[in-house]
Amino acid sequence: MITGRIGRRCLVLAALAAAATTAVTRRASRAGSIPWEAHLQGGTCASPDLSTRARVGDLTYGVPVGVSGTPVGTPPARFQAVGPASVVPVVTSTATVDTPLAELLASPHSLVIESVDPTNEARAPLACGNVGGVPTDDEVVFGLISQRADTSGIAWLRGNANATTTVMLFVTQGLAGPIAGPILTPVPGETPAAAATKMPSPGRAATEVTIGAYDIYFDPNEVTIPANTDVAVIVSNHGVIGHNFSISDHKNPDVPHLGIDVDLAAGTTATMTINAPAADYYFFCDVPGHEAAGMFGTLHVV
User: Fold this and answer.
1) Among the four residues 26, 34, 99, 255, which has the most C-beta atoms within 10 Å?
2) Are strands 165-173 and 90-97 parallel, antiparallel or unpaired?
3) Does the pLDDT of residue 52 top 60, yes or no?
């Protein structure tokens, strides 16, 4: 049996909802306020033993998006991100389980991070990693593979003299996205120069664009399309919670009212045709709290 004690610091896969989000950079706000829990358990990620679980992290600071209230708990010392917008924030937790590290390594164990729906306790895995690797000095480090919401991380387990194990987690969102630009892989027989010609020229408008809705941001959040032309806009919800894509009169005082308001359940995709005169249009998610957390962007029609 694995039993655990949550440590002083806890994982925060959350940017605060509503006014509290103003203290967080836009990039940091990509980690939306999703209730979640982390568990060390028997069995592998593919075949877990749910009867032997120890909680090693959960959401203790922030409130679920769309729920009004005052955040509780103590924020981590480095909760506010610094540096350029390209920084990928990492949040941490520390907990202790009453099981020796040698025992965790002797039989299959895994560590899973799950989102938790506060309305019905429904759970969905965000990331998971099997306990293992190369032990050194009573420590072992292994990766947590993203399952959804672009969540991944590293688990660092340290064996203690009192037959307990300290579990340190380092978790983030956004590592899957490119920073400098896409990597172009030539097809067999194609030169790298030929592959580069497949990239659209900077600023070139497209007649089909794809926008991803994540927890809790749009990627890309700036899109360019041609004016007075039918353009297919494909919006896919890659998150674990419901989102929305709207282009209305909200923050669009000087442009035509496009009247777009599309709800997207987790894992769904919607396609709409936009034909608009040249202007910059503001798009956003109208789920309460999501826009304030950073879920908005600009549609450039040129």
Assistant:
1) 34
2) antiparallel
3) yes
Q: Are 142 and 133 in contact (CB under 8 A)?
A: yes
Output b/e per residue, 103-139; b: 16+ Cβ within 10 A.
Answer: ebbeebbbbbbbbbeeeeeeebbbbbbbbbbeeeeeb
Tokens of 80: 């506010």
| Cis peptide bond N-terminal to 260, omega within 30 | no
pLDDT digits (tens, 9 = 90+) for 90-115: 777 788 888 999 999 999 999 998 87
Cβ(254)–Cβ(295) below 8 Å? no
Burial of 77 (0-12, 13-18, 19+ CB in 10 A): exposed
Q: What are the structural domains of the chain?
A: 4-173 (no CATH), 203-301 (2.60.40.420)
pLDDT greater than 80 at residue 246: yes
